Give the backbone structure.
Amino acid sequence: MRIILWFLVCIMFLSCGAPKVDLLVYNATIYTVDSTFSIQEAMAVDKGKIIALGKSVDLQKQFDAKDKLDAQGKVILPGLIDAHAHFLGYGQSLQRVNLVGTKSWSEVVERTKEFAKNHDDTWILGRGWDQNDWQDKAFPTNELLNQHFPDKPVFITRIDGHAAIANDKALQLAGVKSGDRLEGGEIVTKNGKLTGLLIDNAVDLINKVVPSETPQQVCESLLDAQKMCFAVGLTTIDDCGLDHEVVTLIDSLQRGGTLKMRLYVMLSDAPKNYDFLFKKGQIKTERLTVNGFKVYSDGALGSRGACLIHPYSDQTNWNGFLLSSKAHFDSVANIIYKNNFQMCTHAIGDSSNRVILNIYAKYLKGKNNRRWRIEHAQVVDGGDFHLFGDNSVVPSVQPTHATSDMYWAGERLGKARLKNAYAYRQLMQQNGWLPLGTDFPVEDISPFKTFYAATIREDSKGWPDGGFQIENALSREDALRGMTIWAARSNFEEGEKGSLEKGKVADFIVIDRDLLKVDKGDILSTKVLKTFVNGEKVYDAGVK
């Protein structure tokens, strides 16, 4: 009897001594994306942090878990980070006319008409058309919109957000007239009459008179975006270009527990935002970081607003344009540098990349840890690549731009200039690392399309065979790093996320196949089974 009692006491002692944790994941293939790219079987999570990794049998003995997840051999990755996107903008787009995939201007108008039947809004707004996908690749004009919407303002933007068509009613409300001029934009006319086509800064002439969303509408857009992002495995989003009022709302939603997505926010280039952040200082909470500013130097290649050193190959005597003066970019760099914040500048064309790289060099003066970024770095002159490495400038790229543009980019740039476009491997070599994003809603939200475009550089039908400028493809390991630890690094957050290591936040996803090993044809079919943020399950596909 004494032996039995002693045995029971021992059992009780041992069970009481086992550390209690919130979650134990086991029987998994865990790509940690740590410094050695190690693979583990199990992971213990407590209070939102990873406290141990190792073999399943060891961690099952070591910890007493409140919840357990038998991964049944499935692959687990760090929560994916989109280093360049428009989170709020994507949520807003879900409430507007979806024009992605339209094959003609007439189809755009028909979709707009159908949307209007079920939406009694003051304005009809939409986004997603791309004339480069149409048989007639000329920019459209607004006659059809005027015919069907004579009394209601309609404003529909191109897929890249750098061009738009407004009907006459919208132009009238904005006070836009034929002959108006502005810096960094174009109000297109034909025979002295407005066509409705607006390029780059001209788009803002209409945006200024579009009714502002209510705080409730903004909240709904943020939560809609969150739902979609969790479903594709995204746990942190870099939202590029918001006003500080939205940041305050985001912080409130996160503190209230409804917005669980982690956000790295860049404030827009506007005096009110500089005044706000310089006075307040860096914002850093458990789920929100605000540490820099998003600046636009030029437009997009698809709408010919990207600023090129030499004229467009398909439009004689046209180089695009800068959206502001060089003096403006210099003054912005000066104040951001003095106040010790991050500068993140949109630059597509080789001329705008050169301008910004030289301004950055003026202040950074060689190797540094400021992590100033150039967003897109899409077309770079061959002699300018070294400026990234010389001054530790971070190229932040979106691989699906390459596979979206590859059908027409050669015609627009010419063969010689194309070789230095979408040059992701060449850019990665400058600093030894490269953050990746999607730029959604400009591109699709799926990070697996990012992975595919970065590594395979073909479209979903396998064109072109062998890949578009395949010499600039990334390895699968580096592509995953670009979507996790390197993306975190671009945000100064590599010490807290981006890999699955002891002490870091428990942001991770379970997927249905091994991205590092599957045939290329299976990458785009990848499904997220579960998404966890801070050890909390925020998405479950319901698949066993």
Remarks:
- Residues 215-231 form the longest helix (17 residues).
- Confidence is low (pLDDT under 50) at residues 4-15.
- The domain at 123-207 is CATH 3.10.310.70 (Diaminopimelate Epimerase; Chain A, domain 1).
- The two ends are 46 Å apart (CA to CA).
